[in-house]
Amino acid sequence: MPIPCSRQCGKKAILKRPKTGHTLCKECFFYAFENEIHNTITQGKLFKPGDKVAIGASGGKDSTVLAYVLKTLNERYQYEIDLFLLSIDEGITGYRDDSLKTVQQNKDDYGLPLKILSYKELYGWTMDEIVAEIGKKNNCTFCGVFRRQALDRGAALLGVDCIATGHNADDIAETVLMNILRGDIARLQRCTSIVTAGADCIRRCKPLKYAYEKEIVMYAYFKQLVYFSTECVFAPNAYRGHARTYLKDLERIRPSSILDIIHSGETLQVKEGIKLPERRNCSRCGFVSSQEICKACIMLEGLNRGLPKLGIGKSTKVKRALESIAKDKCNDKCNGKCKDNEWIEEKDLEF
Amino acid sequence: MCTLNLSEYDTFEIEKITTTSFPATTIEAHDAVPFCKKCGNQETQVFLKNGNEYCKRCFLIILRHKFRATLSKSKSVHRNESILVAHSGKANSTLLLHLIATDTNESISKKPQFSFKVLYIDDGTAKGRSIKERESIQSALAKEAENLQLTMYILPLSNCVTDSICEEMQLVNAPLMNTTTSENTTVQEIFDNLENDTAKDELLQQLRLKLLVSAARKLNCNKIFIADASVDLAVKVLGNVSTGRGSQLPFNVAFSDTRYKDVTLLRPLRDFTRDDITGYLECYNLHPIFNCDKYNSSFPASIRNVTKNFVHKLDSEFHSTVPTIYRTSEKLDTKRMECENSNTKIDDNVDSDNNICVLCELTSNSSYLSKEQPTSVAQAKLFSKLVSTVADTSLSMMATNSLNIHELSSNEQIKSTNALKKEEHQCQSDIHKSFLKQSIIEKYLCYGCRLIFLNSKQVDNILPNFISNAIQKKSQIAHLEKEISDFLL
Ligand SMILES: [Zn+2]
Ligand SMILES: [Zn+2]
Ligand SMILES: [Zn+2]
Ligand SMILES: [Zn+2]
Ligand SMILES: [Zn+2]
């Protein structure tokens, strides 16, 4: 017996929404999925007419679906925003080729401009050059630290008003759990915000905040969107792996758990009188840092001075190096425009 | 090729955690001759996961100190107070009972400090236990009470469906209370109608708490001891967060829970580790009535059970996770936000009373939107339901205004409330059974409690009496308020 579409459109349902359990036909699913994102955008006032909006594009499913939906909604509801794709190329031979090819495909398919910024442009070094300098062992430290800032630096360079990232509900729920497990109350408080950053800086927003990963995959499947589907080749560390498994178990038992966890995050705040680690801006580059000089700047300084291990070693060495760097005048071309950006964001892009 | 995964960066951030973790085994052979860390005695018998080794005597002294320190630091218990101790029959409350019983016995020379009464809630009906099983549990409890010379009461869960909660408190050594079959059937029906194990488990927890507090009132105790150890608290933190009760953490896992005006819940074992508990029980050769493996699987597919497995696994791999989790919760508070459309002129007291969930008795604050938080899960869920069920496409345009969504849902509620009122006049007695629509449930329950009854097989006849009574009372008061609102200043 065919199950009717729960929107009573008269067609028969072809799927059961992972998020709500409702049975929908294909068209009604598109309608529901897109309108939920539209609702998030309008409720959250994510964009203003005339905004230059960069979509952090990795070629993965989240950013691919985000790009497609934003383009569709911008046309349908006249957001009047200037959308483009922004990708980061670390400069690792052979590594980024496939995902950049996907982004290129997105560009052609959706008619969105694409800007690829390389580490060379952002930092003056490619990852290959860094690896040659420091050896294979420590390159991941660089990669991670640089990657976190890359989107912000790129957006600043291009004079962007807002970066839209592909964080979905599953990512945010996982981050809430991880921050509780790590005892990071400052980030716990921030991680459910739909928009981060203050008035005079580049906003970061998450239009897919309430979208389920499973529905994103469904949407891509039924719309036949091309994305770079290789699962992350890197196994998450044991800790995050446990948290991820736990979240999957919860979702299986009660599908609303993902949203319920975000609800918990939204209704919590840090107790009055509890001190949070100070968030300040790196005195060199101006991006948010927990220290006087951010890790990226320390590492860059090390590379430029031929002391590549700087910033990887233990804290005393770093401290001494810091002092010596702090004495140097900032001669960076960096525009320090952003005052309150996330320096460390979980899963900046879905690489 | 780059081998970095973003999550690999976490290793820097959790370095502290992993380097301070210790092997998971509690008792193992040591090469060197161990010495008690406290007295220097060579007879070390207790080996803790944190690397400390003690002789039995010192270990027990330390635990006793820990217990007393927790209580005295908080200054929340006073001399000669009557305290009700909640006993579950599991390891943690078995320890707590033994601790307080032997504590009062040892200081017999001094004046007794507190008077303790113990309560066991018999939830066998909800968990599907046979009468025989329940009888044998009760006789084990009676024996325990006798050994420890404690006054122990037993209260069947079915009491929560009768209108007279705890009319007569039953001592544990009396024969099994002959609860009427109809009461038991009602309890069973309530649980059978719920959607899944999580809903059942959550309702059971809430009902147990209700009964516990009513019993405390009946027995003139204004303090209740709950035997939550640190690992239990960690499970509660994650369980609460995962069931949408994050904002309730300041009550549900705090040392002192003051949600009830006349009764305070205290958690004096909050600093006891799993090791402490096993060590203590081994030292005294105590055997909890419920050993974990045999009985705990009542609701195996519940969020609480999954969370418990998760936390226990983490606890054995990363030693500092449990304390980190529950200390994190201590730093968190319920977000207070000005409700944007609060246009009532009623004074704060009445108003806040209206926002109290009739089941868990905590503030229900699910739909607050603010400038800092322009979107919310509650709102997103509502919208999801709309776009998945309503064919009218104009809705999507309407939804661009948040007020409309809320109006839409509150209109629905008003309709149902009115219907409820009409029904009241017609047939007072039938009311709890026949007319409790989902939207009414939504109005009087908090976000977390609402999830319990969501998708239940039957909407009517699933609520225990006291809930429907409370809902009736509230809707009447709301009605009165409306009538006199013109004259309120
Ligand atoms: Zn349809
Ligand atoms: Zn790397
Ligand atoms: Zn910097
Ligand atoms: Zn000793
Ligand atoms: Zn509640």
From TrEMBL, chain A:
User: What does this protein's UniProt record list under function?
Assistant: Plays a central role in 2-thiolation of mcm(5)S(2)U at tRNA wobble positions of tRNA(Lys), tRNA(Glu) and tRNA(Gln). Directly binds tRNAs and probably acts by catalyzing adenylation of tRNAs, an intermediate required for 2-thiolation. It is unclear whether it acts as a sulfurtransferase that transfers sulfur from thiocarboxylated URM1 onto the uridine of tRNAs at wobble position.
Its pathway? Answer: tRNA modification; 5-methoxycarbonylmethyl-2-thiouridine-tRNA biosynthesis
Q: Which InterPro entries match?
A: CTU1-like_ATP-bd (IPR056369), CTU1_C (IPR032442), Ncs6/Tuc1/Ctu1 (IPR000541), Rossmann-like_a/b/a_fold (IPR014729), TilS/TtcA_N (IPR011063), tRNA_thiolation_TtcA_Ctu1 (IPR035107), UPF0021_CS (IPR020554)
Intracellular or extracellular location(s) = Cytoplasm
Task: Output the Gene Ontology cellular-component terms.
Answer: cytosolic tRNA wobble base thiouridylase complex; mitochondrion
The record's section on CDD domains has: CTU1-like (cd01713)
Question: HAMAP family from the entry?
Answer: CTU1 (MF_03053)
Where does the chain bind ATP? 56-58, 62, 88, 166, 171
Q: Which family does it belong to?
A: Belongs to the TtcA family. CTU1/NCS6/ATPBD3 subfamily.
Q: Where is the tRNA(Ile)-lysidine/2-thiocytidine synthase N-terminal domain?
A: 52-229
Gene Ontology MF term list? ATP binding; nucleotidyltransferase activity; tRNA binding
Alphabetically sorted, this entry's keywords are:
ATP-binding, Cytoplasm, Nucleotide-binding, RNA-binding, Transferase, tRNA processing, tRNA-binding
What domain of life is recorded for the organism? Eukaryota
Q: Which Gene3D superfamilies match?
A: HUPs
List the protein's name.
Answer: Cytoplasmic tRNA 2-thiolation protein 1
Domain Cytoplasmic tRNA 2-thiolation protein 1 C-terminal per the UniProt entry, residue ranges: 280-310
Q: What is its main location?
A: cytoplasm
Q: What is its EC number?
A: 2.7.7.-
- What GO biological process terms does the UniProt entry carry, in alphabetical order? protein urmylation; tRNA wobble position uridine thiolation
Automatic annotation (TrEMBL), chain B:
Q: Mind listing the GO molecular function terms for this protein?
A: nucleotidyltransferase activity; sulfurtransferase activity; tRNA binding
- Where, subcellularly, is it found? Cytoplasm
- What Gene Ontology biological process does one annotation of this record name? tRNA wobble position uridine thiolation
Q: Which UniProt keywords apply?
A: Cytoplasm, tRNA processing
Q: Which GO terms describe its cellular component?
A: cytosol
Its pathway, per UniProt, is: tRNA modification; 5-methoxycarbonylmethyl-2-thiouridine-tRNA biosynthesis
Which top-rank group of organisms is this from?
Eukaryota
InterPro entries per UniProt: CTU2, Rossmann-like_a/b/a_fold
Similarity comment: family membership: Belongs to the CTU2/NCS2 family.
Q: What does this protein do?
A: Plays a central role in 2-thiolation of mcm(5)S(2)U at tRNA wobble positions of tRNA(Lys), tRNA(Glu) and tRNA(Gln). May act by forming a heterodimer with NCS6/CTU1 that ligates sulfur from thiocarboxylated URM1 onto the uridine of tRNAs at wobble position.
Q: What is this protein called?
A: Cytoplasmic tRNA 2-thiolation protein 2
Q: Which organism is it from?
A: Melipona bicolor
